[in-house]
Task: inverse folding
């Protein structure tokens, strides 16, 4: 990303691309004039309520189960500080910087809608933190996914107050007060309702959902590439991927995956070599023949998740909210069920795509099913083990992915003295999906590494130009077939090529854009 790129943040929904650019690549942000005006207008209404004798939740009362307690005006600044300090109670490992930046950005967007009653100067501090690449340290545990991602957002709010710890632009963990001073960012003393408005959102789980959609868009292309390479290596047929056959079951994801397979396998010399009538097989195994059906179903699941995410990106999540007519109303929009469900749904799809990839890998290694390939693709079977244990690694990951596919969103633990008696666990669904995506990346890398070795062993028959471009990419970092070598570094090298998008880029340099 260029250093001079800036994304405008106003009341309008953010795009998926902008969220990824800011969270993952550090692109700068700018609050729009419209956002500043809307925040100022809603702030004036909150200040009216703060002066009134009638209690208003979060303005002149306590929080959660303590909402019935009236707070005297002289204690309300302390009320906001106490709220943030007490709620910044996360524990466990630090979450990834990109997740925290997404959390910060999405909270800034909600503030920019003008429905929270936060002062513009408070939002400006959050804007400045993003632009200085100062990232509050947020922990793995602390959110139940209802009343928002409370603890994660409270750690961000603590930084806005100049307290707690952060990662500076260089990645070092340091006291927030020191880093803000160096960056010339003036912390704020939170005013009425501001502490609550900074922590009451589904921003963490939504941020993880948007990042996961970006990852899966790339990984599902890669899954099609791995499947095509495996079909080729196993002397399978591409006839089953014909458009007219796929049209009999008109799921859009399936059609896209099959089209990718056709493009990747076009003009394959390996396939041409067994189309001379000598092949007696009637059908390929399901893991080959049904690849578009599974990868396609995963694509359709991503499309549904993207629809949910787009609605959330158009939302203003807070409680209470300031409405356009000046009313300030309590609501339940902070419940994370819509996001939690699709995060869990994606974890199911990830596990199934990975499971099918592992089955194709195992087939290439089994001399009884690989149609002429050496056992385990070993150079000297018996002396060498080839990719035997690489498949073990795949199998271990797939087993873990099946456990991660168990939904988090069906669980609920009552909290806040039974005031918050049903929660979404959406944050937990997001955390396990991120682990699942890492696992899928590794499973696909091992399939592609194995398939490339098998394709090389089919020489002198040449692969398709599309799959051949991926084999050529791998050969830049991993040697071809030969005696056993230290395999872990080779796996990691291909994991990097999958993770950074190099694998689909190599294929698309020949096939054109894949769906």
Result:
């Amino acid at each position: 990303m260029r250093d001079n790129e800036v994304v405008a943040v106003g009341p309008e929904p953010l795009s998926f691309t902008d969220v990824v650019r800011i969270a993952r690549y550090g692109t700068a942000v700018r609050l729009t004039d419209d956002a500043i005006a809307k925040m100022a207008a809603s702030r004036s209404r909150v200040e009216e309520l703060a002066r009134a004798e009638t209690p208003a939740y979060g303005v002149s009362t306590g929080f959660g189960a303590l909402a019935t307690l009236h707070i005297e005006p002289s204690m309300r600044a302390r009320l906001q500080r106490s709220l943030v300090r007490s709620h910044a109670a996360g524990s466990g490992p630090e979450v990834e910087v990109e997740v925290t930046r997404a959390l910060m950005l999405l909270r800034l967007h909600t503030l920019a809608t003008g429905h929270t009653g936060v002062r513009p100067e408070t939002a400006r501090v959050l804007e400045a933190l993003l632009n200085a690449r100062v990232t509050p340290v947020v922990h793995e545990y602390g959110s139940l996914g209802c009343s928002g991602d409370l603890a994660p957002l409270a750690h961000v709010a603590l930084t806005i107050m100049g307290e707690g710890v952060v990662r500076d632009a260089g990645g070092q963990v340091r006291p927030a007060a020191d880093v803000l001073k160096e960056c010339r960012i003036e912390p704020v003393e939170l005013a009425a309702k501001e502490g609550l408005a900074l922590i009451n959102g589904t921003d963490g789980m939504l941020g993880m959902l948007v990042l996961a959609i970006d990852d899966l868009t790339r990984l599902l292309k890669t899954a099609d590439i791995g499947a095509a390479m495996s079909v080729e290596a196993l002397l399978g047929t591409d006839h089953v991927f014909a458009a007219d056959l796929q049209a009999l079951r008109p799921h859009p994801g399936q059609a896209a995956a099959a089209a990718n397979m056709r493009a990747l396998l076009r003009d394959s010399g390996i396939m041409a070599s067994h189309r001379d009538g000598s092949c007696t097989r009637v059908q390929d195994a399901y893991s080959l023949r049904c690849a578009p059906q599974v990868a396609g179903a995963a694509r359709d699941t991503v499309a549904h998740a993207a629809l949910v995410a787009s609605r959330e990106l158009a939302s203003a999540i807070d409680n209470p909210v300031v409405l356009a007519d000046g009313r300030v109303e309590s609501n339940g929009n902070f419940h994370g069920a819509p996001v939690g469900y699709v995060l869990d749904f994606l974890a199911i799809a990830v596990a199934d795509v990975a499971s099918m990839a592992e089955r194709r890998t195992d087939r290439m290694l089994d001399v009884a099913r690989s149609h002429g390939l050496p056992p385990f693709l070993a150079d000297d079977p018996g002396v060498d083990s080839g990719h035997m244990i690489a498949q073990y690694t795949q199998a271990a990951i797939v087993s873990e992915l099946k456990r991660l596919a168990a939904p988090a969103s069906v669980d609920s633990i009552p909290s806040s003295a039974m005031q918050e008696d049903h929660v979404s666990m959406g944050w937990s669904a997001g955390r396990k999906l991120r682990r699942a995506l890492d696992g899928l990346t590794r499973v696909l890398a091992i399939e592609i590494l194995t398939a490339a070795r098998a394709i090389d062993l089919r020489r002198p028959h040449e692969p398709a130009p599309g799959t051949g471009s991926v084999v050529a990419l791998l050969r830049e970092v991993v040697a071809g077939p030969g005696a056993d070598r230290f395999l872990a570094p080779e796996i990691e090298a291909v994991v990097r090529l999958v993770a950074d998008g190099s694998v689909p880029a190599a294929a698309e340099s020949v096939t054109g854009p894949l769906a």
About this structure: The chain has two domains: 6-201, 208-511. The chain is about 55% helix and 5% strand. The chain has a mean pLDDT of 94.
